[in-house]
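EI: anyone free to look at a 151-residue chain?
SC: sure, send it
EI:
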Amino acid sequence: MAKASLLLIQAFRKTAEALMEGKPYEWGHMGACNCGNLAQTLLNMSKAEIHNLALTRTGNWSEQVNDYCPTSGLEMDRMIFSLLEKGLSTEDLQQLEFLSNKEIKMRLGNRELKNNNRQDLADYLNAWADMLEEQLLQEIKLPTELEVFVN
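SC: here you go
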């Protein structure tokens, strides 16, 4: 599961909001699909830039992430590496492409999610953001009343 961070929480929510406001979404387009839309937000790249990098190799996001090699020198692998540096895992990216993370789906009532549905993607991203936000809040240690008055 992704590393809980404000960066990812904000990126998930921003991507979901942009999708619901009509941002281009096309599941068969490497730059405008589920992973492509999130990559646009996290890496500040256009859908065309992402799509062109992805075309240097065959396969959808899930297949390309499966073939990921950090030392290949391929631009697509560099882009995947950049996403991993932001706190995502290769499994996160594969699951995002097919909206298949079981914890996230459970939060959404285990309803059937379609990997090519704008609303389902936005719901998935918001539920994922909620999960990470809860994890982040659990990590914060607030001082007790006594500690506040002593210091």
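EI: The chain has a mean pLDDT of 92.
SC: 👍
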